[in-house]
Amino acid sequence: MAKSIYLINPKEDLPGYFSLEVCGQGGDDNATLFADLSTTTLAAMVPPDWKIGLCDERIMPVDLECQADVIGITGKISQRNRMIALADHFRGKSRLVAIGGSYASLNPEDMRPHCDILVRGEAEDIASDLFADIDQGRWRAEYAGGKVDLSRSPLPRWDLYPWGRVLNGTVQTSRGCPFECEFCDVIQYVGRKQRHKPVDRVLAELDLLYGLGCRGVFLADDNFTVFRKRTKELLTAIRDWNRTRRKGHVSLSTQVSIDAARDDELLTLCAQAGLRQVFIGIETPNEESLRETKTRQNLHMDLEKAVGKFLDHGIAVTCGIVIGFDSDGPGIFETQRDFIERLPIPILSIGALVAPSQTPLHARLRREGRLVESGAQERSGALGHEHHPQADGPERVDRWDPPALSRRLRARGLRAASDEIHICRPQSRRGSASSGAPGARRRRHQDGGRQVARDGPGRGEALCAARPHPSGATPRRPADGPVRYDALRPDPPHV
Ligand code: B12
Ligand code: SF4
User: Fold this and answer.
1) Do 253 and 367 belong together in one domain?
2) Are the beta carbons of 481 and 64 closer than 8 angstroms?
3) Which of 16, 267, 291, 301 is within CB 3.0–4.6 Å of 12 for a Cys-Cys bond?
4) Domain match, 215 and 81 both
5) Same domain, 177 and 96
6) Cβ of residue 281 lying under 6 Å from some atom of ligand 2
């Protein structure tokens, strides 16, 4: 008999900005900023005769009674505890549990006790063996994937995705990044040699999402602009594709490095293609810290002017700021505050430096005997910290202790929103990110008497969540109760 699999993207361990659980706190249902690409991509590798159920727990409850033959769990570091809880639950019910994704790949020893099958790395080249082995009841405890040719990555099964409360569809055009920031594990996960999906494949994925009603798409790349020649070629194709859409244009967002600001042609093409928002790891204005951590691409640049260049092209910027490098002295809070005040953007996320286990930073701190086994790594991106800052002492440690750091940031006018901290101010001195973005819209809502600004995906019409599913199916919402595995539609043919 054909097998069945239930693929789960667990919710984050802490209420997250990305999963918009902050909305839930105001009484709304949770929503997610970006549709999950991991479960939908894996679903496309499942043999055609298998039954597939798919759950994005950020927007719908997991069916804890699911009777599928295999439970597949994915997740990032921020979902670690929930991955384990779900895996243990389903193993307790004698389900075969497979775990994969970035956290399991980078921390296999942590996940191994919780699953029957551990899948490390990219699945495209090993999926057929994995599923054939399960079919025949002779699966191995571990499978390891290599760095795949992205032309072989299948079109994601967006037809299975619960589109109810999602702001943006997701397309990955490349994997890998040539830079070597010391605190980052992208290289260990997907490599330093960036691999690219063929242009026509990217357009096919955009077509698919467009057909499902998406008018906002997140390009899930590590560094979208770093190979400028290739990016320009892709942007030209996306621009031409976008211009010919008859039912509204698509707004794009992605992650880039600040060096893109050096290339006006690149930024012009970004804007023409529909790129409305980018996330940039600015990290710190402290050049010593940038050098120390090998974030060389941020050096020798006027960071404020560089950010301004994106805005000049109508591209909103969200920045990541990090505090806690060895070269950061006690004055870093004031330095960062002054820098942030000068930046012409309304939203930043601020985090304490953490050292996930596979990063060069982790290796260095271990060598130096400075790791604190506090478990804070599990909260990467939250205000976790897991090492003793240099020139340590009790007082100094207290300054960097997560609650203490949070208090200090708050005291300086920075406000915590869920597990990250977002700067909320109505208008920057040099104009807001959205003011330069044609059609860009900033939604505001009152939160405890303070005004909170959030960048929208670009245009009002870009909300997938607001649209009925083109198939006429009712979006599955948490309010509908758990989606039962056996209630899922039979699989349509692979798209
Ligand atoms: C896009 C992205 C995001 C998007 C997510 C959009 C979304 N749809 O959810 C955003 C910007 C929101 C984001 C946020 C965060 N991210 Co992020 N993100 C990425 C990025 C660039 C691509 C992820 C992706 O969509 N890949 C496409 C899918 C198809 O690939 P995949 O998940 O790698 O899965 C493959 C295999 O692992 C396997 N597989 C996956 N799951 C399973 C399960 C089973 C059972 C099997 C068999 C196989 C399998 O099959 C897939 C195909 O090969 C990666 C870097 C990268 N290149 O992978 C970082 C990355 C995953 N993110 C990371 C981090 C740290 C975060 C944050 C915690 C950052 C923060 N400080 O807040 C948050 C967490 C948010 C959350 N909800 O959990 C880290 C994770 C490191 C770790 N140890 O887990 C990565 C690796 C980058 C990095 N080093 O910083 N991220
Ligand atoms: S630029 Fe971004 S993806 Fe590349 S190494 Fe640095 S932090 Fe990682």
Assistant:
1) yes
2) no
3) 16
4) no
5) no
6) yes
104 and 161 in a common domain: no
Residue 448: give the domain boundaries: 151-453
Among 453, 474, 490, identify where a domain stops: 453
pTM of the model: 0.83
Q: Is the shortest distance between the CB of 53 and ligand 1 below 6 Å? A: no
Whether residue 366 contacts residue 375, with contact meaning beta carbons closer than 8 Å, is answered with no
Same domain membership, residue 155 and residue 132: no
Q: Are residues 143 and 195 in the same domain?
A: no
Whether 127 and 186 share a structural domain: no
Same domain, 130 and 141: yes
Task: Give the CB-side neighbour count of residue 25, counting CA atoms within 13 A.
Answer: 14
pLDDT in tens, the chain (495 residues): 889 999 999 998 887 666 666 566 666 677 888 999 999 999 999 999 999 999 999 889 999 999 999 999 999 999 999 999 999 999 999 999 999 999 999 999 999 999 999 999 999 999 999 999 999 999 999 999 999 999 999 999 999 999 978 889 999 999 999 999 999 999 999 999 999 999 999 999 999 999 999 999 999 999 999 999 999 999 999 999 999 999 999 999 999 999 999 999 999 999 999 999 999 999 999 999 999 999 999 999 999 999 999 999 999 999 999 999 999 998 999 999 999 999 988 888 888 898 999 999 999 999 999 887 655 444 444 334 455 555 444 444 444 555 555 555 555 444 333 233 322 222 222 333 332 222 222 232 223 222 222 222 222 222 122 223 333 333 333 333 333 332 222 332 222
Q: Indicate if ligand 2 lies below 6 Å from the C-beta of 255.
A: no
Which CATH number characterizes residue 124's domain? 3.40.50.280
H or E, element range at 365: helix 360-367
- Nearest ligand to the CA of 182 is 2
| Helix segments in 313-430, DSSP class H | 332-342, 360-367, 394-400, 402-411
| Phi, psi (rounded to 5 degrees) for 475 | -60, 140
Give 18's Cβ-side CA count (13 Å radius). Answer: 17
Give the number of the atom of ligand 1 that is nearest the alpha carbon of residue 99.
45
Dihedral sign computed on CA atoms, order 461, 463, 464, 468: negative
481 in a structural domain: no
Which of 108, 123, 148 finishes a domain? Answer: 148
